[in-house]
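sry for the spam today, last one i promise. struct tokens for design, 128 residues
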């Protein structure tokens, strides 16, 4: 059964012309002066491993510090290639972060235990 091997939050992710996943601006902290804070654009890069030819339906959730789901993405089902590994990215736009604290990024491929990565919304104090 397929599983998510890793998750990375970054500014931009894309496949290059050879098929490698490129990750630019990896981060796990967002600084803001006040809430709600809007993060206009980010990408979630990930790796899925499983059996060659296995069909995979994944679901991405971003969950706030109070347990609320902020966004969900369910890209089209895909088939793992001959080596049983695939990398991909999902772009996240206009994410509104209403609470300070730790947010979860979860990818579930239906095996019962989603893979989780974390980022923190941290308050910065502006000097007048």
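last one done:
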């Amino acid at each position: 059964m397929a599983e998510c091997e890793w998750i990375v939050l970054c500014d931009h992710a894309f496949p290059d012309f050879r098929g490698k996943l490129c990750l630019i601006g990896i981060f796990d902290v967002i600084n803001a002066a006040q809430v709600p804070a809007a993060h206009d654009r980010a990408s979630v890069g990930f790796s899925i491993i499983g059996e060659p030819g296995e069909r995979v339906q994944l679901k991405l959730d971003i969950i706030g510090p109070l347990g609320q789901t902020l966004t969900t993405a369910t890209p089209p089902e895909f088939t793992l290639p001959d080596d049983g590994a695939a990398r991909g990215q999902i772009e996240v736009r206009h994410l509104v972060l209403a609470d300070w604290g730790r947010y979860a990024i979860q990818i579930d491929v239906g095996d019962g235990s989603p893979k989780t990565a974390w980022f923190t919304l941290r308050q910065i104090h502006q000097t007048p």
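The CA atoms of residues 52 and 82 lie 5 Å apart. ok im logging off now
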